[in-house]
Amino acid sequence: MSLRHAPWEEAAEFRIGLRPIPISDWFEGGDADPAKRKDGLLAAHPTAVWSEIPGSRPAQTELLAMLAGAFGHDIAADGQPPLLAAAREVADDLCLMEKLGDAWRLTALSLCAGSFFTASEVIGRSLAELHRPVTGFEARLLTRVERIFNNLRPDTLLERRNWSLVSSPDLYAPDPGPMRAAIPDIDPDSAANALFARVERQTLRRLPQTGAVVFTIRVWIDPLSAIAADPERLARFARAWRTAHPDFRAYKQLNLYDALVSRVIDGV
Ligand code: HEM
């Protein structure tokens, strides 16, 4: 099993961590039929996975055309909102951020692998409001992130990654409650297969005409056993686990997993 991303090897704290990548790397693929998965979720949980504010249609249309150009084929909207049609083409969740007044706000999103939030909860929120639960975001990161949104050039693609530990392999995870409640039932001897690294690989790209920023989120989930398979990888994970910043630990409730993780990393 190959781990595509191992962001804990770089950081176990809140940080911006953006780097430019080639435009051709916009989407990583790896999902055989995203439309089928997303259609099913839209039918079952419409307000959790989709939301838009009406003024976002021009930016949605621009994004759909940009994706069609990138993939070299037309994408029919077939009466759907353009962002929804675009999202059915890719494994990633797609969010549109637009500057309304002084603030960058979330104006449309297709969110089928949200990590503990839903589309209806976050639609319309500014960067500050989105990140209110993240300790220190407003004081340490907000101004820098806003500057990045203001200055992003259309020919630049930025990537960042974050990670967490979870007890479910499900991409669709609107609420951490059920998976956290199930932790006491996990057999410690099977911890390496019952716990999963949940990585979000995110990108930022400016749409040149409307000026909106496209924020993509691709979630990759691997069992801890995939990390444990390589002793050096496991040693790097163990270091991240032991040195994670207290705010980061508290936000992600990593303490809930300490006893189980120690079964995997003790002695490393
Ligand atoms: C450069 C841009 C951004 C940076 C540096 C950033 C950074 C972060 C960080 C550090 C966290 C804490 C969770 C973690 O590390 O796993 C977080 C959470 C989050 N971010 Fe961002 N973010 C950015 C853009 C966005 C955008 C555009 C959205 C819009 C959808 C967004 C929505 C969220 C949400 C909903 C959470 C979870 C907050 C909660 O716990 O309720 N972020 N972000």
Account of the 3D structure:
The relative contact order is 0.18. The longest helix is centred in the first third of the chain and has 15 residues, at about 55-70. Strands 1-5-6-7-3-4-2 form a seven-stranded antiparallel beta sheet. It is an alpha+beta fold. It has helices at about 35-45, 45-50, 55-70, 80-85, 120, 125-130, 135-150, 175-180, 190-195, 225-230, 230-245, 245-250, 260-265; strands spanning about 20, 50, 95-100, 105-110, 155-165, 195-205, 215-225. The chain binds protoporphyrin IX containing FE. Protoporphyrin IX containing FE binds next to β3, α7 and β5.
Task: Describe the structure in brief.
This protein has about 270 residues and is an alpha+beta fold.
Features:
binds protoporphyrin IX containing FE, 7-stranded antiparallel beta sheet, 13 helices, alpha+beta, 268 residues
Question: Secondary-structure blueprint of this entry?
Answer:
Layout: E1 19-21, H1 34-44, H2 46-49, E2 50-52, H3 57-71, H4 82-87, E3 93-100, E4 103-110, H5 119-122, H6 127-130, H7 137-151, E5 157-166, H8 177-181, H9 191-194, E6 196-206, E7 213-223, H10 224-228, H11 231-243, H12 246-251, H13 258-265
This protein binds protoporphyrin IX containing FE.
The site of protoporphyrin IX containing FE (HEM) has 18 residues, from strand 3, helix 7 and strand 5.
